Amino acid sequence: MTVRVPAKVNLQLSVGPVRDDGYHDLVNVFHAVSLFDEVTAVPSGRLEVRVEGDSIEGVPTDADNLAAKAARLLAVRVGVAPTVALRIRKSIPVAGGMAGGSADAAAALVACNELWQAELPREELMELAATLGSDVPFALLGGTAVGLGRGERLTSALVRGRFHWVFAYADGGLSTPAVYAECDQLRGAFEERVAWPRTSADLMSALAIGDVLALGKALSNDLQPAALTLRPSLRRTLRAGRDFGALGALVSGSGPTCAFLVESEAHALDLVVALSGVGVARSVTQAYGPVHGATIIESH
Length: 300
What we know:
single chain; about 300 residues; eight-stranded mixed sheet; four-stranded antiparallel sheet; about 35% helix
């Protein structure tokens, strides 16, 4: 059973004050893009994980892998042994702010649900996904959606048309907890009053009418200052993208991937070539969105 699952970019990531449980209230506008991991689940005598792809250093292949945790969680829910071999073929960057680990967990839920003939409805899979992490439910849903709470309470957004993106991958990753901690520290240092996050009306309007120029102006990420503090070289990457005509530029999620909104597929290709030529990233690729969430592509 093979499931394809997309990366995400955050069109808006507004971070509220720290809650009593240590999390932050968020307004998180997710957008699924055409960069995919594939997770294949086959019967096995035990739970095992194999990871394939470029730049997969640091991806756990033991019980700490989020896809393995997803398989165990589903097995407990449906009352079966978690005897499955998961083969993860990665194209989403690792620790890149594009929810690759969360995507793999979502794909594992869908793949094992089919493999074990559990027949859990998507609503139950979404509930399980929310216990695994804030980004996992969206990887199931796909498209474009507003996430509230920790990001797990999702409402699909109205989107007209297709948007084209260029993604610049940095060397190495950034720890999401470290970026949030740096965000809190920066706010404290500047005695910044942290407002309750609100969905951007300009952003939602741009999506609804398919206005790429307005969308570029409305992109925002409260974690970006923290990511730039921890990885100052990203400033040069963002500046280069803007200089080469990107309509919008921001760090994706907790980084360090930089995302650039462009006006067309042709412009995306031009920007890939330009950014590759000036050496501001480990690699550069193009994609489009929105796309569907975790989808079965092959049944063995």
